[in-house]
């Protein structure tokens, strides 16, 4: 017990459990069942546990699942129903495929190609980093893997090639600027595709519970115009408000050429990986037409990589993040689905709507979206934020009269865009901040400015584009 209490996080864990017990034993509001209220208590406790992280996310989710069974809130079959959900496996399979980019070296090759092609200026170099992230994002749902595993090492190498070092005045030569470009760009690329951030398929599944169907193609079509505008403006705005000292990085192209030379010619496995990537994009877009779900398409891609020996079974078994995602993702889908099925989310929306019913749906959506967006200052995980707030905010927006698909997509896009706010707001943020190039005060200042830029772009440009598409 003494060892347990020495860890400060364990005090938060005990507080979390206490909150859950208090909710469980509190008077049940009229209009809902004891079963739905007890499930709500377990859900809140699980989400708080994911936020304070006394244990890894998967372990906390598994504990929540255990409690639902032991207390007979859900049957064993009900509790594990989320594990058969196709959306869960879409993400898990995508994690496995992402490993192919790393193992074959294709991810690095793409990055160095764009650095060499666009690296005549520092601004061009920034666009090269963003372009690399954009190309890789559809098949790498882990921001940590994509930014931390592929983009960050290249940014770090470029900075050091120009004698730009962390925790020193030289950081402003080029390193600090490129680090911020990588961080801010990742927030946008995460919003562009259903498979570019782990929480996006969870969003689609929650929306489906409310009768809103989101496909890979419909998500990409709705996001592409405001997303490209954001990706075009962010490096330029950063260049103006946080300028690098080096404007013409002559060494960048030499650096990329040397790295490409070291990589050599594309190997057969890289060609297979590239062809599989192209096939996946094609079938994800054409899926609804040919009758293939996104999860089935992704499984096909994984099968190709296994059959061609691009990936080995040992690679699949060693992908810890994918297996962890299977646990927490399935659990959150289970809890969210049964909260909806048992009527608690409907009760909540009706309770909230009576206080905001005097507002038009457009004004209500704007106010709710601002609250949803900037409340991310209190979260260190996009998944935790989505799990706690997406469903109720979506339901209330729809109840106000917001077109359902518009509300589902807009809150979905914001669920990635808010990851640019702080040095702890997404998986790769601590890695990039920990590099030592950008002070914390500067990070928060830039995060707030660019969050406002992104929010404005997605409201105005996105709103016009969605109007053109007939979403509202």
Task: Describe this entry's structure for a reader.
With 472 residues, the chain is mainly α. It has a domain at 86-320. It is built from 23 helices and no strands. Helix 3 packs antiparallel against helix 17 (320-341), helix 9 runs antiparallel to helix 10 and helix 20 (382-399) packs antiparallel against helix 21. It is globular. The termini are far apart.
Give short descriptive properties of this protein.
single chain; 472 residues; mainly alpha; 23 helices; globular
**What's the total count of β strands?**
0
Largest sheet: none
Order of helices and strands: HHHHHHHHHHHHHHHHHHHHHHH
Average the pLDDT over all residues and give the rounded result.
86
| Integer-rounded radius of gyration | 23 Å
Structural class: mainly alpha
| Multimeric status of the protein | single chain
Strand content: under 5%
């Amino acid at each position: 017990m003494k060892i347990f209490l020495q860890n400060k996080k364990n005090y938060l864990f005990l507080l979390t459990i206490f909150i859950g017990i208090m909710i469980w034993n509190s008077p049940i509001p009229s209009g809902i069942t004891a079963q739905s209220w007890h499930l709500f208590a377990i859900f809140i406790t699980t989400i708080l546990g994911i936020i304070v992280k006394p244990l890894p996310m998967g372990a906390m989710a598994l504990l929540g699942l255990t409690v639902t069974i032991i207390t007979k809130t859900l049957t064993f079959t009900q509790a594990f129903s989320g594990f058969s959900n196709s959306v869960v496996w879409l993400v898990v399979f995508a994690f496995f495929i992402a490993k192919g980019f790393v193992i074959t070296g294709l991810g690095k090759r793409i990055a160095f190609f764009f650095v060499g092609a666009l690296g005549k200026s520092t601004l061009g170099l920034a666009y090269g980093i963003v372009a690399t992230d954009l190309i890789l994002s559809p098949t790498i749902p882990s921001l940590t893997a994509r930014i931390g595993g592929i983009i960050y090492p290249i940014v770090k190498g470029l900075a050091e090639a120009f004698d730009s070092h962390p925790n020193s005045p030289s950081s402003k030569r080029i390193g600090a600027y490129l680090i911020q470009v990588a961080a801010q760009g990742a927030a946008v690329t995460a919003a562009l595709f259903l498979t570019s951030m782990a929480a996006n398929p969870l969003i689609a599944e929650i929306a489906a519970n409310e009768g809103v169907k989101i496909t890979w193609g419909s998500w990409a079509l709705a996001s592409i115009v405001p997303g490209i505008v954001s990706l075009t403006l962010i490096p330029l705005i950063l260049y103006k408000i946080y300028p690098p000292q080096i404007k013409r990085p002559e060494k960048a192209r030499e650096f990329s050429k040397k790295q490409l030379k070291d990589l050599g010619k594309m190997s057969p496995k890289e060609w297979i990986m590239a062809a599989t990537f192209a096939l996946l994009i094609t079938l994800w877009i054409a899926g609804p037409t040919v009758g293939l779900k996104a999860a089935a398409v992704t499984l096909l891609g994984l099968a190709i990589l296994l059959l061609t020996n691009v990936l080995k079974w040992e690679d699949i078994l060693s992908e810890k993040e994918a297996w962890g995602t299977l646990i927490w993702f399935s659990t959150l889908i289970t809890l969210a689905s049964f909260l909806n099925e048992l009527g608690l989310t409907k009760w909540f929306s009706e309770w909230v709507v009576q206080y905001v019913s005097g507002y038009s749906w457009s004004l209500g959506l704007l106010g709710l979206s601002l609250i949803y967006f900037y409340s991310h200052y209190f979260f260190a995980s996009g998944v935790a934020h989505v799990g706690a707030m997406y469903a109720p905010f979506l339901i209330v927006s729809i109840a106000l009269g917001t077109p359902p698909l518009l509300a589902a997509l807009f809150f979905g896009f914001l669920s990635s865009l808010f990851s640019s706010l702080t040095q702890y707001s997404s998986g790769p943020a601590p890695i990039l901040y920990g590099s030592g190039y950008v002070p914390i005060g500067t990070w928060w200042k830039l995060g707030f400015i660019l969050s406002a830029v992104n929010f404005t772009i997605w409201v105005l440009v996105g709103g016009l584009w969605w109007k053109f598409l007939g979403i509202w």
